[in-house]
Design brief:
Elements lengths: L2 H29 L11 H8 L3 H13 L3 E2 L7 E2 L5 H15 L4 H22 L4 H24 L6 H20 L5 H9 L1 H8 L6 H19 L3 H20 L4
Antiparallel strand pairs: 1-2
Helix pairs in contact: 1-3, 2-3, 5-10, 5-11, 6-7, 6-10, 7-9, 10-11
Length: about 260
């Protein structure tokens, strides 16, 4: 590693320290170890505990204050203001919902996040000892996708092609929404849950040929197999194939 690369590495580590420490303190606040209304240890005490400077601790406090968990006053110890992230998340939703009325790029970013999470969730779910609980409803959605795709390709349904596509897209949305439940980040999960109707509307606009519907169903079937049997590498690879197709389809949707 060159001297320049070493400096960049040290800078990245230094930058991540406040986030790491605020995350540790957040867990203690949410768990009740630090109770609402009570002061936190001083900057110096916490700095000694975590082996960082007061400046780093002040940055960590800023992160916690921005989340609405503590209240910081000059010359006094920080006070625990809230034992949960509900107020922070609620405030964020209000801001996002107001912006969505005038800034449709926000929804595009939300879609991008949900798609990119799919690969991470496939990895997490494949290693979860309770994965079959989440996989079970995914299989139900997959059955509807497969049934509809076959009807579309074999022309055996009395429904019009656009009606079949709507049924397929609904099942596809539920399949991917259920997979995203494997994500363990409470804030991201809550955001996705609150914007599920907007996400569903976008899924309903996706256009597939009957052959593409059948191909996606087959890919999802293989993904289910990999998840059920804990084949992490295969699950991640199949999730990448799935998200590549979704990204291509989303690019064609006019939001």
């Amino acid at each position: 590693m060159t001297e320049g690369e070493e400096r960049k590495q040290r800078a990245r580590v230094q930058k991540s320290k406040p986030a790491y420490i605020s995350g540790m303190l957040e867990k203690k606040i949410v768990s009740g170890e630090y109770k609402v209304g009570e002061p936190l240890p001083s900057l110096q005490e916490l700095g000694d505990t975590y082996g960082v400077s007061p400046r780093t601790m002040r940055e960590a406090f800023k992160n916690l204050e921005a989340r609405g968990l503590i209240e910081v006053s000059q010359g006094r110890k920080a006070i625990v203001k809230s034992g949960s992230l509900e107020m922070f998340v609620e405030s964020m939703f209000e801001t996002m919902q107001v912006r969505m009325r005038v800034d449709k790029k926000l929804l595009s970013d939300l879609l991008e996040v949900s798609i990119n999470l799919t690969t991470s969730c496939a990895r997490t779910l494949s290693r979860d000892p309770d994965r079959l609980i989440i996989v079970k409803p995914m299989k139900t959605s997959l059955e509807k996708m497969t049934e509809t795709a076959k009807a579309a390709t074999e022309n055996t349904s009395d429904l019009a092609p656009d009606e079949l596509l709507q049924i397929f897209n609904t099942a596809s949305y539920h399949f991917h929404a259920q997979l995203l439940q494997a994500n363990s980040n409470i804030i991201i999960n809550t955001i996705l849950d609150n914007f599920k109707e907007q996400l569903k509307l976008i899924y309903m606009k996706l256009e597939y040929t009957p052959d593409e519907m059948l191909s996606l169903s087959q890919d999802c079937k293989h993904l289910i197999y990999a998840l059920e049997h804990g084949h992490t590498d295969l699950a991640v690879a199949l999730a990448l194939v799935d998200t590549t197709l979704l990204k291509d389809k989303f690019k064609k949707v006019v939001i």
